[in-house]
Structures are given as C-alpha cells and as structure tokens.
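I'll show a typical protein example:
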Amino acid sequence: MAKKKSRKKWIILAVVAVIVILAVFGFIRLRNNLEELAKTTYIINEVGRGDIEVEVKGAGAVEPLYDDTVYASFTGTVSQVLAEDGDIVKADDVIAVFTSDTMEEQKQALEDQIEQIDTAIATMRRTTGSSTIYSPVEGVVKMIYAQEGDSVDVVMDEFGALSIICPDKLMQTKVEVVDGFTAGDAVTVSVGEETVEGIVYSIEDGMMSIQFEDDDFAIGDTALVFDENETEIGSAGVEVANPVYITAQGGVIDDIREPVGDKVKVRTKLFKLDGEILSADLYSQIQQRKDLQQDLADLEEDIAGLNVYAGTDGVISGLTLNKEQIVQPGTPLFTVQSNGAIKLDVQIDEIDIVNIQIGQEATVEFDALPEKTYIAKVIKINPVGVSVNNVTNFTITLEIEPASEIMLGMSADVKIVSQSAKGVLVIPIEAIQVISGEKYVVFEQDIDEELSFTVATHKIETGITDGVMIEVTSGLEQGDMVAVPQARELTAQEMQQRMFSGSSEE
C-alpha cells in the first residue's frame, strides 16, 4: 500500500514538472514573439512638395451685428402701440404714439399769447414812427444797399442793413493761416495802386484777420497781403473792420442824404423814409409774435416727436409698452436688432488666437442649411481672454455675408485658415522624433533591423503643420527618403493567440 502511494506521488511530481517546463518554455517563446511583434516597423516616405493649411475651428450662434435700444426722451402717456416683438421694421416705421398733457398745455398757452398780440397789433397799425434815419456814430459811409424807392423791409431782408458806416478808419481782409505767423506780426497790404502797412489782428478757425488803415478803399476791393520779404501770402476782399449797420423797419426810401465816402457825425441824417413806418412799440409786438410763432412751431415739432420710430432696420424685441402707460425720460422702450447685418461670436484658444487677424475670411456652415457654405469676416478680436480649466479662450466676432435664409439663433460651425504654405517640403508629422527639444528624422538607410527602435540623428527645422503633415524649412531636400515609425501594440486576444500557437508548435 505504501509503495502505491509513493509511486502515485512521483507521478504527480513528474506531471507538475512537465507542466512547469512547458509553461516556462511557452513563456519564453511568447516573450520572444511579443518582442518581435512589438518591434517598430517603418513606412518609407519620399520627401516632396505640397500645400499646408492650418485651420482654426469654432462654433457659435447667429446674433444681430448691432442692436439699438430706443429710450424715451420725454414724459408721456402711451396712446398707441403699433408693433410687437418679432416684427420686422424699417427705420422710419412708427412703433408707438405718445401724448403729453404738459406739451398740450404749453401749446394752448402759446396760441393764447399769439392771439393777444394779434389783437394788439391790429390796434397799433395806424401809428407811425420817425421818418428820418440818423447815424448813431461818427465815421465814413462805406456801403449803401438801399436806393430811392426801395422798400425798407425788402432791403433789410436781403442785406440785413440799409448801409454800413466805418467808425474808426480801420479796414480788414481775411486770408488763410500761414505757418510762422502770429497775432501782432506786421504785413503789407496792397489795394489797387495803394499800399499800406497792416497787422495780423487775430487768428481763428484757420483764418488770419489782417487790419489796416482806410485809404478810401471800397468794400469788396481785392487786397493782396505780403510778408516782410515781399512774398504774397494771400488775397481776399476788403471789409470794414468794425462795421456799424444802419437798420430800419417799414416804409420806403424817399431820400438818401449821405452817399458812400461821406464823413458823418452822430445824428447826421442818412435816410428819409415815406409810407407806413412802424413805431418802436409796433415793431416790438411784431418781433414778439415772430418769437412766439417760432416757439409754437418748435413745440409742435416736439409733439410730433412723441411718435417713436424704429430708428433703424431690423427686428423688434423687448417691447412691453401698454396703452395708457406713462413713461419717464430715459425709460427703455424697445430694441431693434439688425437682421440684415449678422454676426457670430466664436471662442478661440490662446494657441490659435495669435494667428487670427482683423479682416481674415472664414467659411461658415449651418446645421440647418447643409447645402451651402457662407463667407464671414473677422471684425473684432477681444483682447481679454477667459480662463476655463487652465485653458484661456478669446472671443472673436465675425460678420456674415447677408442671406435671407439665415435666421437669428441658428447654430454654425466656423473654419478659418489661419496659416498656409504652398509648394513647400512636407513630411508626415509622425516621422519626427523630438530629442532635447530638437527635431530629428530617420533616413531609410539608418534603420537597424536588429533593434526594436532606431533613434533619429538627422536634425531638421520645421514650419507650420495641419496635424498630419508638417513643413520642413531646413535639413531635408526633395527626394530624401525618411522613415515613418509604425509602432504596434498587441491586443489581449493577439497575445492569447500567440501563446496558444507557440505552445502547439512545440
């Protein structure tokens, strides 16, 4: 019995030993197979020329390029609301009509005042004023606009005065500013055959006023101005430096007492008038009526302005006005969003934003409009980025070409070609090994079949990349053969197959 147990024990030990030997042998075989399969293989790529485009992609939703909010500029009560949210409007469309009790009361008060003045004017029409116009100053008559028989009112409406008197023997002309001249500088002025000394009196709004003593010069004569080197610096008409305008109201010119060129004293008779001449009181009433009439016209314009217009073409939003609602100045009434001019705001990360510029074109595709690609242009780059999860994004704004089928709120995908290179040397980006920050490639003849991996030794410099191909700027020539590593990793199923196949072969 003991012998049977001993024999059985040795059989078990022998079986275990055989299993262990087979397992070790299988493991060694598997390891060799795995090492063989894990060896880096290479595809040989010939260096050639090609084009590379670097694309920056983003997404956004259609928004109005601009929106104008209309605010109340008055206190008023809503009388009518003629639009609602979502309406497409034109700039001159009336959106709401308001009334203002205050303005209506002011209008009635002005109308009452005008009526009272009309009554007063009607009772004063028979009064008369002085029939003689006197000079208020001493001086020389330089211009007479009126002629005998002229209506005073007609002359006043056309010229603003009956005549002009020069009170101080000073004339002037105005020429464009010349570099180097300042107020007080001396000049020479020639009018016809006469030459006099002048002075730069003032410089304002790009013009130099040159004053000089009167030598029987006529208003409108041409004055030539010269600097100290006798170089002409400009020319213009002669004017009275400090004119005194002689005015009147009503009547007809019966006699002109002092012609052009006469010297007059204070209270010298200048004109004799005939006909109905307005008294000072009547003239005052007429002028007051004109002022009130202008105030009334301005107020009526303001009342008409209580009609609130869209102000620009677009889509109405934020309109919440109700009839009889009272609004105060500064109250937002509604917003008009542009629908003909639209934009997209797109987030671009900090790596790509450096290659985006104002004016760059982009292609836009809409999920809702899959059959067409649209063109957009970068019109704004927000210089302030926003960091999210350690990634900083910048917002760029693109204006999209107008199209009737594009609606506000549509989602879109944007693609911008930020960099491009044409006809340059290119290789697959996987061919590059980065060693100590430098870039290297393996030539075909450098591959060692005995090694699991060949270390690159040919240094190159690169340019832009689209993520698949990369531009080579130095270190390679067209026709060079570079190796692109194709490392392979075994799956669990492949490892199991190799294990069983290795064991069975033995």
In short: The longest helix spans residues 2-38. Residues 502-506 have pLDDT under 50 and may be disordered. The longest strand covers residues 411-428. The CA atoms of residues 263 and 411 lie 85 Å apart.
